[in-house]
């Protein structure tokens, strides 16, 4: 690969032997070639610090990375969630540490898919976990129906095998702009209902809704507690107040140390029942 200094030398050498018009054209061609040769390589798309489960909530809401939970191990089930920035996950190790379910990011908006989805989704299943997929919503990019269909078409479906959870819809602070996506509470309610109804029509299950109380009550006017299980995000020693419309949480994301950790609100038999539908 030529360096910029080599390219500059080539330009000076050629300028000395050419007409003004020729020198001008050559300078432009060599400069363009050098800019391409020396441009940094573009990285493969990853989620990194942006659109992953709770990434924006952690930016805007208080965080206690190591809460003292004191959960009843007979009445709750520990789990985790992952996305592309974790790469290939050592699932056997996490299963050995007691994790019994995992949610894996499948898609975002209507154009992004997790390049590690197959290893993460199938790997968690292969070691004995109950697994599910989630979609990071970008409501101002396309309709709820379009994103639900994209999610189902790219790994977010459901099967009645007893070890696959219904897909989850991650709706939280906008990572790319205004917190509520420059949409009204009624418009966001309509969008979420469109996603939920489309997912139900495609799979026979209503999606789990992941959100935080602060974001939901600020941005969404409607309620979904009678149809959609709640996955609450709150990094403290209790789930606290729930979003408008829900009386019960099903999952709780309570810390991101050393990765996103979650709890199912019930015994293992209850988690299995949710997977069975």
TrEMBL record:
SUPFAM superfamilies (alphabetical): (Trans)glycosidases (SSF51445)
GO molecular function terms listed in the Swiss-Prot or TrEMBL record: lysozyme activity
Transmembrane segments: none
This enzyme's EC code(s): 3.2.1.17
GO cellular component: extracellular region
Principal location class: secreted
UniProt entry keywords in alphabetical sequence: Antimicrobial, Bacteriolytic enzyme, Disulfide bond, Glycosidase, Hydrolase, Secreted, Signal
Enzyme class label: hydrolase
GO BP annotations listed: carbohydrate catabolic process; cell wall macromolecule catabolic process; defense response to bacterium; killing of cells of another organism; peptidoglycan catabolic process
Signal peptide: 1-43
Catalytic reaction equation(s): Hydrolysis of (1->4)-beta-linkages between N-acetylmuramic acid and N-acetyl-D-glucosamine residues in a peptidoglycan and between N-acetyl-D-glucosamine residues in chitodextrins
Gene3D superfamilies: Glycosidases (3.20.20.80)
Keyword check for Disulfide bond: yes
Biological function: This enzyme has both lysozyme (acetylmuramidase) and diacetylmuramidase activities.
Name used for this protein in its record: Lysozyme
Organism encoding this protein: Saccharopolyspora terrae
